[in-house]
């Protein structure tokens, strides 16, 4: 269980509020119980550590009654439990409580850290920390005489030390962590926005390329259907003279061809008008053949781009039109990119035609002059469209920078592509199905590495919080010790018995009667006062001088000291005090 605040990006309350599920309510209950137990242990541990230091119990207000300390400790635990919902009240309440009961200092540090981390407004955060400092100092200043700390000035100094170590330092750490959370959240949002923009751009490129493919299909199939319709009309005219009985069949073929052409236009018209290609972009039966590619190379050479062209294998006349269109698009898009982003760079265009595949390679070196900032590095939509076109044919497409600073585009297309079951253009549901299935599977069964990562992060946060509490506790103890050392103490004066003192006062200072000393003084002591009822012979630590032993005698009347006599007796044998004897100061 950790006292650390939740990340700023995490919701502070469940969206369902009081109607949260049983699992969430159970987790909150166990977390509250665990934090309450841990808070009680922190208060007890702090009390024991401060009690261990000599002189601290009386200095830190331990003169309070036991039940009062228990009530104050329970109030501190309650305040630390509500720190997430009421951060300001928790910090101010614990700061004031710490001035009366210093063992609640670690709870104050936890509340200060959490409040500073959760508060996003800079002014509110500064005001809260300053109010916490003032609350601790004023509470310690006001309660010092009552709790036995000493003077109010000393209480103010001790309160400043406690406030600095348990309010200010954790608050600054919480502020840094809160700013880090905000930065991480902003970076995640920007990353998500960039990913969404890239996904939309790729989707647009795919849709655009599919529209081009549909337009090409319209041109090619429409051209063939026009020829069929034309021949069917001629056949109908010829059969009218030679075989009138077959004229109706020829008329049906011509009408069916005309209807097919109309339906094709209606089906492909939903893709929107794209215009018609002209020049080397014209969709003809020669598109994608060697002469067509040579024309593209010639156009690039005409604008000053050094292009080296090579062709291996047979021409592409016998291949399907969609394969030839793909070859044409790859070469044209690659050369267009060279014109835009690598002007003057040397380019190699290679087409390798084998029995089964057609491989197209377009590579350029580093441009002699880097592209301007306005030109940029492109959006990549053209390459995305090429990849979509090649994928539809069952081929592979690769594009990327080369080690020398250039760029390479490679497309490997089957010579006879099989009809693959692919989603229809614009079928976003089919495109998103794999991702949705993957996400649903991940939500239903968390992956082991994710669980392991969550457990590792939880242990790391717990260890970090524990080390932070240990550091705050060490700083707090060090500050208390310094304050105790700086506290003015009364000047030491040795105890001097005076006539008129009661017997009990002398005995409280360790002055007592010893039979050995009484026996040594028998017969050698001066005369006792007449009113003396009893005398006491304490042990004196004075060394024997000249063979004589120094002694002192206290005589009492009605347990009141009436005389103090000092004398010497001859040293016969050196008496020793009994074990554990004490002498007066």
Put simply, the count of helices is: 15
What coarse outline follows from CA principal-axis ratios?
rod-shaped
What is the CA–CA distance across the termini?
Answer: 54 Å
Structural class by helix and strand composition? alpha+beta
Task: Look at the structure and give the mean pLDDT.
Answer: 77
Summarize the topology:
Blueprint: H1 22-52, H2 56-59, H3 66-81, H4 87-100, H5 105-118, H6 122-147, H7 152-242, H8 247-269, H9 290-302, E1 307-312, H10 321-341, E2 347-353, E3 357-364, H11 381-392, E4 396-401, E5 407-414, H12 428-444, H13 448-486, H14 503-508, H15 515-521, E6 534-536, E7 548-557, E8 560-570
What does the model show?
- There is one protein chain.
- This protein is of the alpha+beta class and 585 residues long.
- It is 57% helix and 10% strand.
- The chain contains 15 helices and eight strands.
- The strands form two sheets. A five-stranded mixed β-sheet has the order 1-2-3-5-4, covered by helices on one side.
- Strand 2 and strand 3 (357-364) form a beta hairpin.
- It is rod-shaped, with a radius of gyration of 49 Å.
- Residues 1-19, 55-62, 272-281, 373-379, 419-446 and 579-585 have low confidence and may be disordered.
Keywords for this entry:
single chain, 585 residues, alpha+beta, Heat Shock Protein 90, 5-stranded mixed sheet, 3-stranded antiparallel sheet, 15 helices, disordered N terminus, disordered C terminus
Brief synopsis:
Helices cover about 55% and strands about 10% of the residues. By secondary structure, it is of the alpha+beta class.
